[in-house]
Amino acid sequence: MYKVMENGGGKILGLSLYIFIPCIVLILIVALAGALPDNMIGSLGFLMMISAVVGLIGKKLPIWNKYFGGGAMLTFMVGSGLFTYKLLPADVFDNVSTFLNKDGFLDLFITILIVGSVLSLDRNQILKAFGGFFPAIIGGVVVAFVFCMGAAALVGIKPITALINIASPIVADGNGGGAIPMSKIWAQATGKNSTIWYTPAFAVLTIANILSVILSSLVSRFGEKYPKYSGHGQLLKIKDKSAGQTEKFDAGVLDIAASFLVVLFIYIIGQFYADKISFVNRGNMGFKIHAFAFMVIFVIVLNLINVIPKEIRAGADKLQKLSSKYFLFSVMFAIGMGTDLMNIVKVFTIPNIFVIISTVLGALIGAVLVGRCFGLYPVESGITAGLCMTGMGGSGDILILSSSNRMNLMPFAQITSRIGGSMVLIVFSMLLGLGQ
Predict the structure, then answer these.
(1) Count of alpha carbons within 13 angstroms of residue 174, beta-carbon side
(2) pLDDT tens digit string along 114-147?
């Protein structure tokens, strides 16, 4: 998004500063005058321009960029600040809300992430996930939930409420693949605005991410002191040099366009199945499963039966990376512009912090115990199947693995974040039904 040039200048969103700065000044003038076009063009143009600058600042701020969510968190906070203190005309907030929700941009963004993330994984990786590694992920989720309920009971929080508001967003796929779609699921189940759930959930994610990075470093040091529990970067006790390798393919423009059609197809079919076919949703079972959860299942099946050509899978991977790079800040800024900043403060209580810490420790311990039963080294299993689950998606994986000097385990971390985290969407849907 930002590139320093040899002449000392720079670029933001591919535009030289002498072009970008006048553009953003004019955009701000138009917005403050309440004259932004009342359509997706006006909203997206405003969001991309402003969020690019705020996101860049968040990426460059020391400490903040490593431990407090970086550019994504700062764009959310700034957008929320604008909304909380009404620093822009009401029409701007209304237009952005319509664009994000009613016009479906948020749904499109989420679907691109789901399809691209799952299709980017090699079939062999997915099959390995159903071997020894996937049970370790399940163990982490189960023990995290148990610890969460126990901690909640000790501090006077209803266990089912703690599972919905604290444990579920922590063990899901970070923000884009976890908290954001969960907020949509919550809104559908309750009939309330999604930001009511999302705002404290994002704060919970931030706290859990910081704790996961710290614990990863401590677990790594434990492995150095007690070598028999560490594979020193090797996850499986039976060495498999091919683990995590994927077939490389350089996707072209046509491949990306084709993958976009697949994204649209998956969204339409997922919505249709959830609304018209699913016996769970159409029956009187007390809960419903959101369409996003069905989309995850459909894409995993398509990948496993190998019906998606490699060039389209590569295109989907590139599409989701491009979307994450150039639209994530816009999405976060837009979500913030519908969020009251004061709601975040409510999360920072001693009972909530205690439950968050217990949940992260539960994920670590569960992954270690189950992983060891399936021939995984405890240190590596705890970091990849446990802590990478409680981090903040892909960026969290990088921080967690780098702090433990185990970047070579990124493929397994991605399995945890993408497949394991995505499956929590289904569990979350069921919890909502039980919690009402």
Answers:
(1) 31
(2) 888 788 877 776 776 667 888 999 999 999 999 9
